[in-house]
Amino acid sequence: MTLRLQPRRPRRLNLGALLVLMAVTAAVAASLWLAYRALRPTSGRLGRLRQYWSNPQAHADWAVRAGKRCGTAPFVMPTDGLIGFLWGDSFYPGHQHQGLDIFGPTGPDGLGMTPVVAAHDGYLTRLPEWRSAVIVRIPSDPLMPGRTIWTYYTHMADADGRSYIADDFPAGTREQFVTAGTLLGYQGNFSADPDNPTGMHLHFSIVLDDGQGRFRNELEIGNTLDPSPYLGVAVSASAAGSEPAVCASGS
Questions:
Q1: What is the pLDDT of residues 106-158, one digit of tens each?
Q2: Residue 194 sits in which domain range?
């Protein structure tokens, strides 16, 4: 008897399943790439902050100076130190940093030592419940005259909430005029949770007005402005290079 082997029929390719698999693979790859792109700059800036804090004197050229104006920028720098994290940085997927985190040269334990000053003339408010923050209303945006903006300064307290805001601005202060360079307080690490301090720094942001003379919710990046043109330094995560954010040479 002769056995004849029947040729196997090739399996039909399930085109629909293949397309679904390809789409899922592409989506996962895109998500990983976006996460990598979003978190890579933040990770790099964290490494630079560790270097700066380990020896601020050796990296003095990485730092900005309180009260200094870069060229013809309308704002002065609000504090001393390394601009560690930028406007638009991502600390986790779906998050964008609404302002700047500036870390003073005294390191994580130098609480209440690094001064914070007003970046521009305006009218300062400190709500009764605010331990670590003040906000300054600027009636006419220097880059868009007629538009009201607000500059927000926070973390000016220790982990337990002991305030480092200057005594001139007690809780409940409203619409007190200050000039650019006025001492507002000192950097701190208040986060409202003593077990999870933020690390000693100033968080600074520029907040839009709601059109009714009130500031918008600073926690949403869409309610804030890129500080770059106001400070004369590239501090937007989407546009900044890999070098520290400082005034251009000669500014």
A1: 887 777 799 999 999 999 999 999 999 999 999 999 999 999 999 999 999 99
A2: 31-231
CATH of the domain at 225: 2.70.70.10
Task: Give me the torsion for CA of 240, 49, 91, 226, rounded to 10°.
Answer: -40
- Separation in Å, CA 196 to CA 31, 131, 187, 193: 29, 16, 16, 5
- For residue 177, tell me if it sits in a domain: yes
DSSP 166-223: -TTS-TT--SEEE-TT-EEEE-B---S-TTS---SBEEEEEEEB-SSS-B--TTSGGG
223 to 40, 161, 209, 216: CA distances (angstroms): 25, 26, 8, 6
